[in-house]
Amino acid sequence: MGYAAGVGKTYQMLEEARELKAHGVDVAIGYFESHGRPDTIAKTEGMELIPRKRIEYRGSAFEEMDTEAILARNPQVCAVDEFPHTNVPGSDRTKRWEDVERMLDAGIDVLTTMNVQHLESLNDQVWYITGVRVRETIPDWVVHQADEVVMIDLTPQALLHRLERGVVYGREKAERAMRNFFRESTLVALRELALRETAHEVEHRTIAETAPAARHAGVAAAIFERQKILVLITADPTTAMAIRRTKRIGDFLGAECFAVAVQRAGDAGAMPEAEREAIERHLNFARNLRIETRVLEGDQTAPVLIDFARRNRITQIFVARPRQRRWRLPLLARDTVQSIVNLAKDMQVVIVSDREPAGRA
Amino acid sequence: MTPETRRKTPDDFLREAQAEERAARGGRLKIFLGYASGAGKSFRMLDEVRRRRERGQDIVVAAVQPRVPPEVQALLRNLEVVPLKSAGDHPAIDVDALIRRRPAACVVDALAYDNPPGSRNATRWQDVRDVLEAGINVIGSINIQYVAELSEQVEAITGKHVTQTVPVEFIKSADEIELVDAPAGQPMVEGSAEEQLDAARSEQRLSKLRELALVLAADVVDHQLNEYLERHGIGHSIGAQERIMVCITPRANAGAMIETARVIAERFHGELIAAYVNQPEISPAGRAALEERLAIARAAGARVEILDGDDPVDAILEFAEGHGITQLFIGHSQRSGLWQRIWGNPVDKLIRGTPGMDVRVFPQ
Predict the structure, then answer these.
(1) Which residue in the set B178, B207, B363 is minimally distant from A202, CB to CB?
(2) Class of the CATH domain delimited by A218-352
(3) pLDDT digits (tens, 9 = 90+) for B66-103
């Protein structure tokens, strides 16, 4: 786990692969990206590299990891760079992490690399910090499954120094990068995120290994053993943020999460096409993050939602804060949030803020 | 826009402040932080020294651990060493010799040592401070076990009491801190059931120390960033750390709210703040109830902030925005009664709130 290109993730991964090989473990490199860095390339010398697969897409040739060749070769351990990578259309699987899952299923141990900004539940926070919407994301549960998460740390000063010397990218590309993602305050913030995320991953594993009864002492146990979180799904684009935030807080509290949409009875057909699609997309997104989803019927959202929450012993309801428009407040959406707050007198209601990088030039 | 009128970015301030500090102290301090011996701190540190020397820096070794693994020995062979001054088993770095030699930088492996009686300073980290003041850069290393403020937590994990420590303030004063992380242990396949249990327990202990080290590094990074931003009057709105603020009123029953906030802050390794907006007419009973609630908040580890303002909601929002609050906790009762009659519905106002901050409304 790192926080930017150039902190040394690939180098460290190859170092570990070499060490394993020196100890007689059967290791192969499934995919690696040198970025033209001589130090990194040197680390692959004498290591078995499984050739990439060429894929034609729209008249151009792309190179991807050859998962089938790796499965056929069946090494004990395989090193795979750039975990969040999206495969070119026409590949067997959409995401590299799905290729890795396939390898794990076949009994191959995998070493892989990623930056913290690719974690799905942090997508909005990263947008807020960097002003960049990261498109290639990994669902949190995939990272949670890892046996180990190790932080590859480097101070931003040292990283910027590496960039200036042209170690990370070529000199020209470095100058461009330094104007955007690699501003010092941005790097400091991303590094803090990565450190806290790794601490959380370590804690998660420590807790999982301890007897459940010893998990939390005293009152905390009473309050947190039974936490159940529900997130309201609507067609509003802010819903995606609410889902990520629900997942993140739910994970940290060890809570069960549900995603619920409310539609007017027998009226699904009358709903505008775009709205129906948006709701379906949000429900799918929640499912991909391993949140259980339900679609309820009723005329008014708030009472239907609260009734479901009571019956299912929900303790916290998450709703997106309606997006603001200066010239027109979305009254209906605001009324729904208001009604939920007013009706849910026996549970906590969290109004999830958007995290747009507004005004952070 | 001319260069003179360009508004300074946070990065400009950051760099300026760093320059100021460096100028004041002379030497720069870089610390490698680890969680156990054998995690590779010494190697990482000396490898950096090797690279700096290759770039032509004048750098010497002022102290290394008494026993080093072969790969570290190999690195040491090519480096200049200023020998330790020994008094029995108690070696100390030779500050005078270092200052006479005046290299650009020196390496001090393991900062947490007490010096022998009669030395210039009682501890090694104070020696390092002197070396820095003489304008020599220092690269040092420390394990999480030897941070003074964490010694109780460490003892609870390891069962061992550590006497030679370094204050956390010294670590926070470093210009750079770098974490040396590694998995806590190799899974043990063979051995008796008892040995396997022992191995699992020791791995568990190491994982807890590892977590402490990661969180301390994150806190130091956060501290550095915010110190610079704050000193130059820039509100922090970075959002890398969860900052939870509980709004306390004399009326609201704050117990469950504070306890929930405490647990969430703990899980996220975040900051906990309890805020109260001064109200002009408060009854003696109200005052007593308020003090009791603030005492609960303090006991939960919250920093208490007393705010002033004509409109309590505005006061809360202004503070929250200026301090990078990511989660605001309020009680239900705040949306009825006096507040509502005077200021309208505060929840409604808070819902429109501020970007980057969730609002959590509690049942009463």
Answers:
(1) B207
(2) alpha beta
(3) 777 787 888 888 889 998 887 667 789 999 999 999 99
Contact A321 B353 (CB under 8 A): yes
Domain boundaries, chain A: 9-206, 218-352
- Checking if the pLDDT of B65 tops 90, the result is no
Where does residue A59 rank: exposed (0-12), middle (13-18), buried (19+ CB within 10 A)? exposed
What kind and span of H or E run contains B105? strand B105-108
Query: Which two three-digit tokens encode residue A290?
Result: 């391993």
First to last CA, chain A: 27
Tokens, residue B224: 């550095």
The residues in B 236-255 lying below 8 A from A, measured between CB atoms, are 237-241
Looking at 3.75.10.10, 3.90.470.10, 2.60.40.1270, 3.40.50.620, the CATH number of the domain B243-362 comes to 3.40.50.620
How many angstroms separate the CA atoms of B86 and B100, rounded? 19
Superfamily for the A9-206 domain: P-loop containing nucleotide triphosphate hydrolases (3.40.50.300)
pLDDT of B333 above 90:
no
Task: Provide the pLDDT confidence category of residue B192 given band limits of 50, 70 and 90.
Answer: confident
Closest partner CB to A195 (pick from B207, B214, B364):
B214
Interface contact B352-A183, CB threshold 8 A = no
